[in-house]
Amino acid sequence: MPRKSVKSTIGNPFSELSVVDSTNIYAMEQLQANLAVHGAAYFANEQTAGKGQRGKQWEAGKGENILLSVVLNTQFLMISQQFHLTVMVALACFDFLAQYIPDELSIKWPNDLYWRDRKTAGILIETSVFGDKWPWAVVGIGINVNQTHFSSLANKAVSIKQITGKSQDPIQLAKELCHFLELRYQQLKANGFAQLLSLYRQHLYKKNSTVRLKRNNIVGDYTIQSVTENGDLLVTAGIELQFAHGSVEWV
């Protein structure tokens, strides 16, 4: 199957997998084997080695959550614009979650979705780069839907069911999420990054609040201000500072 087409929409085709090591690994393998078109979505009921940010494992109960990876054509973006895709995906997840969680949602820099102070969704974007070209990305999204027990993240994670008291169909929700991804993807393609970034900043977790961040193994108090166009976090601590992704950790 050729992978040149960009006519398909995100979520078409939609593949449901019983169990995989990681949907991102599976999607990347399909891409490398020339078996994935733009928009292809891979949903898993179970992951044996789910991937999170900074090499962490993503905890998810079998059949309880959204475990989804989509293949996106990114040839309209430059390699230096990878944060543009992060913003787009984060906002699409925010749009989706806002249907079920009416308030207190935010985007934790760079790409987690929070309800109050607990994580409800995470994003992991892996790129396929050739020289100075960036033709493809695999976007992995994990959203806590029906899970009510988190063994290692008891006080840090939260699901839609825990917030609303209602169970949902993870597969149906994953297809809805694809719709929101398509809307924001088309906006990004239409040179809409400035508006997307403005919304991202508006929904920024702990904006204008003081938080604890670890930098070079030193923990300090910083006030969250904003995010730059290339994805650096702007904070103040007496003076204004700018942190690149990966240079600091939330404490």
Walk me through what this model shows.
- Mean pLDDT is 92; it is low at 1-5.
- The protein is globular and about 50 Å long.
- The chain contains five helices and twelve strands.
- Helices cover 25% and strands 33% of the residues.
- The protein has a seven-stranded mixed beta sheet with strand order 1-2-3-7-6-5-4, sandwiched between helices. It has a five-stranded antiparallel beta sheet with strand order 11-10-9-8-12, with no helix packed on it.
- By secondary structure, the protein is of the alpha+beta class.
- The N and C termini lie far apart (46 Å).
List the SSEs and their pairings:
Layout lengths: L13 E7 L2 H10 L8 E7 L18 E8 L8 H17 L6 E4 L3 E4 L2 E13 L2 E11 L16 H5 L5 H20 L3 H10 L7 E6 L2 E10 L5 E5 L1 E5 L4 E3 L1
Parallel strand pairs: 1-2
Antiparallel strand pairs: 2-3, 3-7, 4-5, 5-6, 6-7, 8-9, 8-12, 9-10, 10-11
Helix pairs in contact: 2-4, 2-5
Distance between the termini: 46 Å
Poorly predicted sequence stretches spanning 5 or more consecutive residues: 1-5
Query: Which structural class do the helices and strands define?
Result: alpha+beta
Order of helices and strands: EHEEHEEEEHHHEEEEE
Query: Helical percent range?
Result: 10-25%
Strand order of the largest sheet: 1-2-3-7-6-5-4
Output the number of helix runs.
5
- Number of strand elements: 12
Radius of gyration: 18 Å
Which sheet architecture does the biggest sheet show?
Answer: 7 strands, mixed
Overall pLDDT score: 92
Strand content: 25-35%
Shape: globular
How would you summarize what this structure contains?
With 251 residues, the chain is of the alpha+beta class.
